[in-house]
């Protein structure tokens, strides 16, 4: 089976969030499980931000031109082979030689170009995948094009398609007026992509793909509920029959507490207390916090957006700091939140730090050093940080939604690996943190049992990869 993943991010080359992590790990697991008859490729834009160390490894394998409407566009194709997967990078400096991955006024056009270039490259190279698996709105058009403009093409029309929703909040919505000019779609195709008076690319891919998946079972159910669906629950109801929830894993070799020559002091499950204490000391020193093994360290590694429940943390922050704790937050996001956390960290200079950047190494040091990890997301399709925290023996405190509910078992239940609060309420979060701190202080046996169970929980990609392979086999079988 030949599988092509289409995505706007893939770690370690270009990543701004969980999608990048998934594209950096799932394809290799699929290849490992599928064996020698499985050929796996990932295709993404060649962004300016891709580091030189990777550029040096790239080989230019092709170039071609195509029309996106009236635009005549160049496309270079570069390749890196890693973990038995082919990563292909599509080069067009006009669209991708920019400082950030997203956030430009012409993102619609940029990702229309990307999605169209993917389909044109398949056609031009004659290398036809059995499965094209696209992710989020930025690559939605690759499926929409296959099922509309190219549906009469005998080779391309055989390709089966899967679309994964990593977060329904971001839909790719545009004015219907630009349907032909920017997206190069005939007005007769408007019904596929139109929703609520606008072009909605995510809806278009849900409507046209052979199967839809999302990144946890619980989120697949939640999407039928208007509270979680950002307006799309009628569409999810309509296409629910082809929708499946498959929970993500994490890359266990990248996130490995016992990895030598990594940025942390390695430790194993059997020496977790000593290991975490040594890491905590190193982090406290490097951040200029008072060095104290016994003071609980509570951390967050997150995008600073409302969806991540930042407002809850801000609401109770002063009460939280009344506890004898240290607090560290790492991440970037909305300017407002960045400013408030800087002020709060300055006010509590002896116990709090706000580090406003994206830093993979520092994030590992924080996971390895902390006692509790807060993830009070309002909604969370899957969430990776709670799994990474567990892997490093840090207990997550999560709001019981989406993938957080599927992956974290609350204290008190069998195989518990963290703490869960039910309602999106700041004081429920605070109460749950206080409860966790009380267990840490007064009940060392339960605490160390929780830490061991957290580290033991199986968050490997194996189960997820198998379910994806099953899904591919089903849609290939169905259509033959
Ligand atoms: C998005 C979601 C997150 C998920 C990730 C990978 O970033 O918000 O919950 O873990 O995609 O699927």
Strand order across the biggest sheet? 3-4-5-2-1-6-7-11-12
Low-confidence stretches: none
CATH class of the largest domain: Alpha Beta
Report the total helices.
Answer: 19
Q: Total domains, how many?
A: 2
Find the count of extended strands (DSSP E, 2+ residues). 18
- Dominant shape: globular
CATH superfamily of the largest domain: Glycogen Phosphorylase B
Do you know the CATH topology of the largest domain? Answer: Rossmann fold
Mean pLDDT: 97
Q: Please identify, by name, the CATH architecture of the largest domain.
A: 3-Layer(aba) Sandwich
Helix % is 40-55%
Bound molecules: alpha-D-glucopyranose
**Distance between the terminal alpha carbons, to the nearest Å?**
14 Å
Q: Give the helix/strand class.
A: alpha/beta
The value of Rg in angstroms is: 23 Å
Sheet with the most strands, sense and barrel status? 9 strands, mixed
Strand content: 15-25%
Layout of SSEs?
Blueprint: E1 2-6, H1 18-34, E2 39-45, H2 52-55, E3 59-68, E4 71-82, E5 85-91, H3 93-96, H4 107-125, E6 131-135, H5 136-147, E7 160-165, E8 173-174, H6 190-193, E9 194-195, E10 198-200, H7 201-208, E11 211-214, H8 217-222, H9 226-229, H10 233-239, E12 243-245, H11 272-287, E13 297-301, H12 310-321, E14 326-330, H13 335-347, E15 352-355, H14 360-369, E16 372-375, H15 385-391, E17 395-399, H16 402-407, E18 419-421, H17 426-442, H18 444-456, H19 462-479
Parallel strand pairs: 1-2, 1-6, 2-5, 6-7, 7-11, 11-12, 13-14, 13-16, 14-15, 16-17, 17-18
Antiparallel strand pairs: 3-4, 4-5, 8-10, 9-10
Bound molecules: alpha-D-glucopyranose.
The site of alpha-D-glucopyranose (GLC) has 14 residues, from α1.
